[in-house]
Amino acid sequence: MRRTQVIAEGRGEMLGWHEPDENRAWVRDNKSRALVDKRTTLAQAVETWIPDGSFIAIGGFGHVRVPMALIYEIVRQRRRNLALAGKTAVHDCDVLVGSGCVNRVEAAYSFGHELRGLSAASRRKVESGACTVVAENSNAGYQWRFLAAMMGLPFVPTRLMLGTETLKESCAIVIEDPFTGKPVALLPACYPDVALLHVPRADKFGNCQIDGILVEDYELSRAARRVIVTTEQIVDEEVIRQRPWHTAIPYHVVDAVIEVPFAAHPCNMPYLYFFDEEHIAEWRTLSKTQEGAQAYLDKYVFGVPDFAAYLELVGGAQRMEELRRIELLES
Amino acid sequence: MPNHDYTQTELLVTVASSLLEDRKSAILGTGLPLLAGLLAQKTHAPSLLLIFEAGGVGAQVPRLPVSVGDSRTFFRATMAGSMHDVMSAGQAGHIDYGFLGAAQIDRYGNLNTTVLGPHNLPNVRLPGSGGAADIGSFSWQTIVIMQQDRRRFVRKLDFLTTPGYLDGPGARERAGLPYGTGPYRIITPLGLYDFEPESKQMRLIAVHPGVTVEAALTASEFELLVAEQVATTAAPTAEQLAIMHELDPAGLIVGR
Question: Which partner from A188, A292, A319, A325 sits 20 to 30 angstroms from B157, CA to CA?
Answer without folding.
Answer: A188
